[in-house]
Design goal:
The protein is α/β, with parallel strands linked by helices. It is built from 15 helices and 19 strands.
């Protein structure tokens, strides 16, 4: 029987199936951070359960850590306690931790790929919804809840119902200035935020084949914003070249064996998906959101649509916008370039190319937040920091930052922010903050012009 990429990876990790119930799925890598892990460790302690395979777990701090003065004691009590608790738990159970000050610390979904922890064909979980990022490597990667985190701690496996399969195919020539962020926003705007409910999505077609690995990570990162359990892209030469030589990548004869396996990870001809969509890449233009979910997106030079839906009207009211109006020319005071969606070196190279030799608008507060210490080092090594500083951008230290406003990096009440993050829900970037999601290029242009612009 011909199989999809998803079926192949799932079947390779299937421990057992419960009749009329869930599957038991083996987990290759478990990523944890300071916010969603403490309760799971407490469950082990309360039930006197041993940690089964600590070598399969990697920890970092990212969600609630400061992005200023990380060498100093953390001022915020909650953040300080979360980091301390994770540190103590990792030491107790022998878990590798990349804490503050470590050269490999960073956002969990940035450090996994860049360190070679993420490898094709793996099953990867984390107590964070955007674990889907790792699907760019042909992995089954998805977010889990606290009780499931404890489940993996104790058994290195999960009880989980197998999702249905979906394929989204995009062929055609991508227009100038269109970035991967625009492509995934376009997909969600066309299919809706609930189109993927109950599905695992494979992205295929020449648009994704031509995309860089970092671009693929952006697409898979936001696959859950269409309701999918996760997204994945078949490994190819780009994938293998990206993985080889990284700190935790396989070496020598083991690498040769792995590559043979990785090359089998593609959907067979005539494999059947439960649902398929085909979109035309020629139609995709730079995108921006106008509402309070990622599906409320449009071409940046378009007009806000009309709808009688009450939730739609509520979203526009929150955003202070009106149907039938354009967003071009709207004054913006905050720009955030970061998050697990767009905080890799390619993103910052794109920004630097736009702003080089220019000054940001005086009214704009522009934040550059690298996704990891390694990315921060690359920014300096490539002299991008000089461009950012000369243009008036503020460079912070690695962390989730203003993506979810758990630390001090919040957008003020009522202010608009053009953000390269993944969610524009009410209050996501701070109480009363209003978010426009866009690509790094668009965000850079907004920072320079002080308004939404092409």
């Amino acid at each position: 029987m011909n199989k999809t990429l998803f079926d192949k990876v799932w079947d390779n990790h299937l421990v057992s199936s419960i009749k009329n119930g869930p599957d038991i799925l083996y987990i290759d890598k478990h990523l944890i951070h300071e916010v969603t892990s403490p309760q799971a460790f407490d469950i082990l302690k309360e039930r006197k359960i041993d940690f089964f395979r600590p070598e399969k777990t990697i920890a970092t701090v990212d969600h609630n850590v400061p992005t200023l003065n990380q060498h100093l004691p953390i001022k915020d009590l909650l953040s300080r306690n979360q980091v301390k608790t994770l540190t103590e738990n990792c030491k107790k159970h022998g878990i590798t931790l990349f804490g503050l000050g470590n050269q490999y610390q960073g956002i969990v979904h940035v450090i996994g790929p860049e360190l070679g922890i993420t490898q094709p064909g793996m099953t990867i979980v984390c107590g964070d919804s955007h674990t889907s990022t790792h699907g760019a490597f042909g992995c089954i990667a998805f977010g889990i809840g606290t009780s499931q985190v404890a489940q993996v701690f104790s058994s290195q496996a999960l009880l989980v119902k197998k999702p249905k399969s979906m394929r989204i195919i995009i062929n055609g020539n991508i227009n100038e200035n269109v970035q991967p962020k625009d492509i995934i926003l376009y997909i969600i705007s066309k299919l809706g935020t609930d189109a993927g409910n109950g599905y695992f999505v494979e992205f295929s077609g020449e648009v994704f084949e031509n995309m860089t690995m970092e671009g693929r990570m952006t697409v898979c990162n936001m696959s859950i914003e269409m309701g999918a359990r996760g997204g994945m892209i078949s490994p190819d030469k780009k994938t293998i070249d990206y993985v080889i030589g990284r700190k935790f990548s396989p070496k020598d004869s083991i690498l040769d064996q792995k590559i043979k396996y990785w090359k089998t990870l593609k959907t067979d001809c005539d494999a059947v998906f439960d649902k398929e969509y085909e979109l035309d890449g020629n139609l995709i233009k730079p995108m921006i959101t106008y509402g309070t979910n990622p599906g409320m997106a449009m071409k940046i030079d378009g007009t806000i649509p009309y709808s009688k839906d009450l939730s739609f009207k509520k979203a526009l009211k929150y955003m202070g916008l009106k149907a039938g109006k354009k967003l071009l020319g709207k004054k913006i005071n905050y720009v955030f370039i970061g998050s697990c969606t767009n905080s890799r070196i390619e993103d910052f190279r794109a920004v630097a190319k736009i702003i080089n030799g220019k000054k940001k608008s005086k009214n704009v507060n522009a934040l550059i937040v690298p996704g990891s210490q390694q990315v921060a080092k690359q920014i300096i090594d490539e002299n991008l920091d000089i461009i950012f500083k000369k243009s008036g951008f503020e460079i912070r230290q690695p962390g989730c930052s203003a993506c979810l406003a758990m630390n001090e990096d919040k957008i003020p009440d009522g202010e608009y922010c053009v953000s390269t993050s993944n969610r524009n829900f009410e209050g996501r970037q701070g109480q009363g903050a209003r978010t426009f999601l866009a690509s790094p290029e668009t965000a850079a242009k907004v920072a320079i012009n002080g308004q939404i612009s092409l």
